């Protein structure tokens, strides 16, 4: 199983980036997929997650600016990031949660993925 993240880079504050994460080796169409980020010296935190049915959960700090989506046929999850801020600077990791019991109603409680397949991370740097 491999999750390959791409799309990171250096952008000025107010700019946009689109991250992609393509999974291979198995299908995750029934699984929650998400994006987490980790800044230097900080823990890895949830950015956004999406269920198989398309329900989403976002960190408060990114609501209204980031949009998560997925293409189940391509086994890929995306993160559109608009109006980026310097505090968004971090390594962004995609994950496919291996617990298939998350539902469209319970996704609001999804904040950690202790049992997940992880991508390698992509650096996002936002300059002021």
Task: Write down the secondary-structure element order.
Answer: EEEEEEEEEEE
The SS-based structural class is mainly beta
Number of helices: 0
Oligomer: single chain
Helical content stands at under 10%
Query: Over the alpha carbons, how many angstroms does the gyration radius reach?
Result: 14 Å
Question: Number of DSSP strands?
Answer: 11
Residue fraction in strands:
over 45%
Model regions low in confidence, pLDDT < 50 over at least 5 residues? none
Q: State the distance separating the first and last CA atoms.
A: 37 Å
Q: Identify the overall geometry.
A: globular
The biggest sheet amounts to: 7 strands, mixed
Overall pLDDT:
95
Task: Give a short overview.
The chain is 0% helix and 48% strand. The protein is mainly β and 128 residues long.
What keyword list fits this structure?
four-stranded antiparallel β-sheet, globular, seven-stranded mixed β-sheet, mainly beta, 48% strand
How would you characterize the overall build of this protein?
With 128 residues, this protein is mainly β. It contains no helices and eleven strands. The protein has strands at residues 2-6, 9-12, 17-24, 33-38, 45-50, 56-58, 66-71, 76-81, 90-97, 116-118, 122-127. The strands form two sheets. Strands 2, 4, 5, 6, 9, 10 and 11 form a seven-stranded mixed β-sheet that branches. The model has no long low-confidence stretch (mean pLDDT 95).
